[in-house]
Amino acid sequence: MRERPFPVKAAVRRAARTIEASTPAHRDRAVDALRAFAILGVVLGHWLVTALVADGGTLRAASPLAHMPWLAPVSWTFQTLAVFFMVGGHVATKSHASARARGGTYRAWLRARLSRLFGPVAALLALWTTTALCLLLCGASLVTVRTLVKLALSPLWFLLVFAALTAATPLLARLGPLWPLAVVLHVDLFRFGLGGPSWLGWVNVAAGWLVPYTLGAAWTRGELERPRAGWVLLTGGAVVTAVLVAWAGYPASMVGVPDEAVSNLNPPTLAAVTFGLAQCGAALLLRDRLRGAMRRPLAWAAVALVNLSAMTVFLWHQTALMATTATGLLAGRLPGLHTVPDGLGWVGARLLWLPVFALALAVCWVAFRTGEQGPRRPAGHRSRVVRVHHRSTPTEAKAARDA
Fold first, then answer.
1. Virtual CA dihedral for 350, 151, 362, 58, nearest 10 degrees?
2. Which region holds residue 249: left if phi is over 0, alpha if psi is between -120 and 50, else beta?
3. C-alpha span between 372 and 194 (Å, rounded)
């Protein structure tokens, strides 16, 4: 007798098949997969290298990379923002070209792009403004409040940079990545080699992330379709990064480390940019395999759901970590959550906390996802993707695909 699947498992499979059926056949699923992996990489990276140490009545930020620098390869795996900017540049360039072909205005296109980007921000700002005031009124130390607010709002820098590059997409559509890369090179030469002012490094906040963004525009133009392009970026970026770390004095960690003299990420350095190029090359080489993997309904459903909530996940993942940390204080000083990250015991304990962080993030998603997705539709109302797939003209379907 054939065994019947569990009801929950059967429901998940039905939902996955529904998402699969409602996806346009011409959609490049590798783009969505790369965006989902980039977001999840950043989230996991922050959860692994961000520690809040309970010191009496104060919470202070710390990092295991400061105590165990040999863990730097962790940052190589999970610092995936360059891939996100490349995908963003590719999608925005294609979307703008499609909007122009339909006769749409730049203002309408930009409003549509930014509304999804900044939708979840208002709730985050409101909650943390209220939280900070309550903590101060309850007598929490300024160090604790500043630490928590800084961590909670740190993802906003990414949104501001990404929004600025999105707004400049019509000007960047034909710009090659070598131009902003040259700016990063000269800024670092002047800053580190000639003793220039440290504030000059902040020029690289724009120039550094412009490199992968314009790489995405080159992808849209069809200049990165051959495997050779991916291999050149991967090998060239990896070799240059290794040289910069080994002989030019750049930090091995690709994320900021507290009390470190130089950060590769804040602001971006040449090493961070060349490392990002290597990551982008690897991402380009994986496109065909990802397209094959995304033909599986369950895998594609998971990626589609992450993309629907990408900004919510990104903005609230630090809040999930801090909510877990604050709640855990009720049980005392817990290893991997409130202790100094100075040994393998902390690493093992922190790995065990990851599912708890994920559960807290799921609660945040349930509470705040409407800022990104809008209110739930009535039962029986077909989703936007389904409506596009079944009832749109070819031009409208292409516009939805590019959005």
1. 60
2. left
3. 46
Average pLDDT for 351-367: 96
- Segment holding 52, helix H or strand E: strand 51-55
Using CB atoms within 10 Å of the CB of residue 125, give its burial: 0 to 12 exposed, 13 to 18 middle, 19+ buried: middle
122 vs 308: CA distance, rounded Å: 18
Instruction: Encode burial over 284-303: b for 16+ CB neighbours within 10 A, e otherwise.
Output: bebbeebeeebeebebbbbb
Cα–Cα distance, 314 to 320 (Å, whole number): 11
Q: pLDDT digit string (tens) for 287-330?
A: 999 999 999 999 999 999 999 899 999 999 999 999 999 999 88
Q: Give whole-number Cα distances, 176 to 92, 181, 215, 216, 237, in Å.
A: 16, 9, 7, 10, 16
Residues 6+ apart with CB under 8 A from 281: 229, 230, 231, 232, 233, 234, 235, 236, 237
- Digit-coded pLDDT (tens) for 226-249: 999 999 999 999 999 999 999 999
Tell me how far apart the alpha carbons of residues 262 and 256 are, in angstroms, rounded to a whole number.
8
pTM (2 d.p.): 0.89
What three-state secondary structure class fits 248?
A: coil
pLDDT of residue 317: 96
349 burial type by CB count under 10 A (0-12 exposed, 13-18 middle, 19+ buried): middle
Per-residue pLDDT at 374? 62
Angle CA(374)–CA(380)–CA(384) in degrees, nearest 5?
Answer: 45
Q: Strand 58-62 relative to strand 51-55: parallel, antiparallel, unpaired?
A: antiparallel
Written as one string, the DSSP assignment of 154-165 is TTHHHHHHHHHH
Tell me, what amino acid is at 202?
W
- Selection from 372, 363, 325 nearest residue 47 by Cα: 325
Distance CA 252, CA 142 (A): 32
Q: Looking at residue 402, what is its pLDDT? A: 45
Of 113, 107, 268, 96, residue with least CA distance to 187:
268
